[in-house]
Every structure is written in structure tokens, then in C-alpha cells.
């Protein structure tokens, strides 16, 4: 079987070595950078149709191991799937119901894994969303601070304003906005572990009088026009297509007339949401983000517009996320021994494949990520936004100086 596989795949000239349990091996191209150590010989037959979800699942089940860079391994796996898996139009994926219990369980599955585990590969502020790279060689920590400030500048935050942070995570944005821009922040999350650490950091930095964080579903927000600005980062991927109108309606209700709403989230490549990358989406849905759904940019803009929010600025950060995920993947690989002490082997393998796979996917335009800025118009339809974006990109000032 090994010889047969080598004969069928040799023309691809992949930098890949296959090794069998007994020690036999075959190179599928010159100077292999990646070695797949096959523990289950039956896997050789499956390599005839190597979809990305099938390969990822085999790795998770320890039917094979990867030697070499996991980022390189993802590239090799994609070349295999592109060559051997027939393209089929799967159509748009089904849309799951998203009630409070389902969403809370999905959030707990992903985000409550271990704060210490996430700390191994995130930046010091533990910002779990894409950074903003002014230069490709920016450090992860610098890129994340730049992203936090980029959001605050787009929101035109001013001292004394009230900011609602929907899906506040470990509180990095809340702390930055409070410290650098002097705003009052109300953050909500469904992750108990994130909330615990976020509150500890708020207290340690003496920000308790400016930041309130709580465990709350966005659907349980009460009142109207409570906030000057609203921000949601990495949240609407969990909302579900069916709930997008209600989600943006609530954000519209919460912001004051003339106020801004920023939605920062991953978006689908195709307008109908059909998957890209032979099985990559199926793998993520099964093992990483249960019930996650990626709307297309057009879907998000329509849902916002239908609820009375006027979209005034859209920015793609796709290549920024590819760089961010490469940093995360390298950090996790460099800290694998420490990670193995915090999560089980199955979880560690899932995250190794997920981070490297997403870095590859964003770099290949399998999905995108957009910051969508909208305004709730004043009565009569006006607003007080500047005529240009110049204020967002002012250089040579400290964070927030232009808005105080």
C-alpha cells in the first residue's frame, strides 16, 4: 500500500515523508519538511481521499503524528486534498437554533478550557482576536495593543462616555478603553473562566470604579439608549444567522442616537456561507466551535442596516489575522510541554491543528474578518462623524490623546 500510495502521489512532489509502524518510509518529494508517522496502517487507504477534516481527525485520534512544522503540515495537507478530493458543491450549511442554553454551552466548551492554557500562546493582555500589524515584524503584544487602540479610535471614545463591550473576553479592550480613553465600560460574557480572570485583572489595575463586568447573555440586556458607544469583538460568529436581526436590534436599542456601534468578527468568503477548504469547516464545527456560523459581510451589513444602523466604515483585517494566528500557533508549539500539563492530549492536538489551520485558511482567503462601524442616526438622519478618517490614523500621539 505504501508503494502504491507513493506511485499515485509522487507526481505532486510534496515535501512529505510517510513512515509506517514497522519503520518503512517513503518520500513523496525532494527534501521533505514534514513527516507523517502512521500508527494505524488502515490510514494509508484513507489517504487516497485525504479531506482536511479526515486528516485532522486522524491526528486527534492519534492514528498518526506530525514531525516538523505544523504550519507546513497544514499546507501539505491542503495540497493533498486539492489534488485528490473531488470538488463538490455542498451548498450552504444548515443554520442551527441558538437559544440561551445552546450558546452558553458552546461558549463554555471553547472558552472555559483553561485560562492558563490560553495564556501560554496569547499576548500578555490575553486578547483573543486578530491583532493590527502596522509592520509585518511587529510583535504579537504590540499588534494587539495597536488593535485595541484602532478600535477605540474608530469609536471616537471620549472621557466620561459609556461603552458597552459585548463578549468582553478577558477584558483587554475594556481595560485599554478605561485606562487610555477615560470611559466607563460595561462588559458582558458567557464564559465564567474569562470573567473570573478579567475581574481579577480589573481589580489588580485599580479600574474597578470604571469597569463593570458580568456574566450575561446579550439577549438579557435591559433598557434603551444606555450607552454612548457599543463594541463587539469576536462575538457575532456565535450568534447564528437566524438571530442576527435580533442581535443588531439589541445593539441598536442600547446605543444613544448619534452613537457608534463596532462589530468586529469573522465572515464567510461566499455570500451563501458554503464552506471553503475541503473539510476544514466541518473540522472546526465538530471540534472547536460547536454551533458557530460565519455570515458573509453582505449578510452582516444587511442585518445592521435593517435594524436602523447606518454602516459608515468597513475594513478587512484578513491578513492581520493570518499573522496573528501564525504567532499563536508558534507560541503553542513552543510551549507544548507546558500545555500538555494543562489540557488533555486530545484537546492539545485539536488546538494545534486549529490554530495552524486557521492561519493557513486566512492567508488563502478561505474566510475573512471585518470591522464594521455603524452609527445610529440622530432624529432627522444626521450624525456628528468627521468628514474624513484622518482622526483615526493620527500618528505621534499617545492612545486617546486626540479624543480627550
Automatic annotation (TrEMBL):
Domain Polyketide synthase-like methyltransferase: 133-377
The protein's name: Cyclopropane-fatty-acyl-phospholipid synthase
Secretion signal span: none
Residues annotated as the enzyme's active site: 358
Highest taxon above the source species: Bacteria
Entry's family note: Belongs to the CFA/CMAS family.
Cross-referenced Gene3D superfamilies: Vaccinia Virus protein VP39
Pfam families: CMAS
Amino acid at each position: 500500500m505504501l508503494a502504491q500510495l507513493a506511485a499515485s502521489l509522487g507526481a505532486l512532489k510534496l515535501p512529505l515523508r510517510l513512515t509506517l509502524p514497522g519503520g518503512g518510509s517513503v518520500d513523496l518529494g525532494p527534501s521533505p519538511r514534514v513527516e507523517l508517522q502512521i500508527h494505524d496502517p488502515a490510514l494509508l487507504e484513507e489517504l487516497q481521499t485525504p479531506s482536511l477534516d479526515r486528516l485532522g481527525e486522524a491526528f486527534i485520534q492519534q492514528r498518526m503524528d506530525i514531525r516538523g512544522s505544523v504550519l507546513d503540515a497544514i499546507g501539505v495537507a491542503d495540497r493533498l486534498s486539492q489534488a485528490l478530493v473531488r470538488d463538490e458543491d455542498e451548498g450552504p450549511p444548515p443554520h442551527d437554533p441558538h437559544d440561551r442554553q445552546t450558546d452558553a454551552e458552546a461558549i463554555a466548551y471553547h472558552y472555559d478550557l483553561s485560562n492558563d492554557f490560553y495564556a501560554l500562546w496569547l499576548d500578555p493582555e490575553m486578547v483573543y482576536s486578530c491583532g493590527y500589524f502596522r509592520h509585518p515584524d511587529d510583535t504579537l503584544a504590540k499588534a494587539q495593543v495597536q488593535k485595541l487602540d484602532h478600535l477605540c479610535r474608530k469609536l471616537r471614545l471620549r472621557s466620561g462616555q459609556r461603552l458597552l463591550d459585548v463578549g468582553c473576553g478577558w477584558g483587554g479592550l475594556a481595560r485599554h478603553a478605561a485606562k487610555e480613553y477615560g470611559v466607563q465600560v460595561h462588559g458582558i460574557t458567557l464564559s465564567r473562566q474569562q470573567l473570573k480572570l478579567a475581574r481579577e485583572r480589573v481589580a489588580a489595575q485599580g479600574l474597578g470604579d470604571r469597569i463593570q463586568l458580568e456574566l450575561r447573555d446579550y439577549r438579557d440586556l435591559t433598557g434603551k439608549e444606555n450607552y454612548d458607544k457599543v463594541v463587539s469583538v469576536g462575538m457575532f460568529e456565535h450568534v447564528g444567522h437566524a438571530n442576527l436581526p435580533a442581535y443588531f436590534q439589541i445593539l441598536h436599542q442600547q446605543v444613544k442616537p448619534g452613537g457608534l456601534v463596532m462589530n468586529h468578527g469573522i465572515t464567510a468568503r461566499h455570500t451563501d456561507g458554503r464552506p471553503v477548504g475541503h473539510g476544514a469547516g466541518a473540522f472546526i464545527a465538530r471540534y472547536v466551535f460547536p454551533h458557530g456560523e460565519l455570515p458573509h459581510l453582505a449578510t452582516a451589513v444587511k442585518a445592521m442596516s435593517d435594524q436602523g444602523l447606518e454602516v459608515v466604515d468597513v475594513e478587512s483585517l484578513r491578513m492581520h489575522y493570518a499573522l496573528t494566528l501564525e504567532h499563536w500557533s508558534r507560541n503553542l508549539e513552543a510551549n507544548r510541554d507546558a500545555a500538555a500539563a494543562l489540557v488533555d492530549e486530545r484537546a492539545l492536538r485539536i488546538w494545534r491543528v486549529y490554530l495552524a489551520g486557521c492561519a493557513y485558511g486566512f492567508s488563502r482567503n478561505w474566510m475573512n474578518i471585518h470591522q464594521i462601524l455603524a452609527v445610529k442616526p440622530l432624529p432627522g438622519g444626521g450624525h456628528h462623524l468627521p468628514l474624513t478618517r484622518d482622526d483615526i490614523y493620527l500618528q505621534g500621539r499617545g492612545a486617546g490623546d486626540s479624543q480627550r
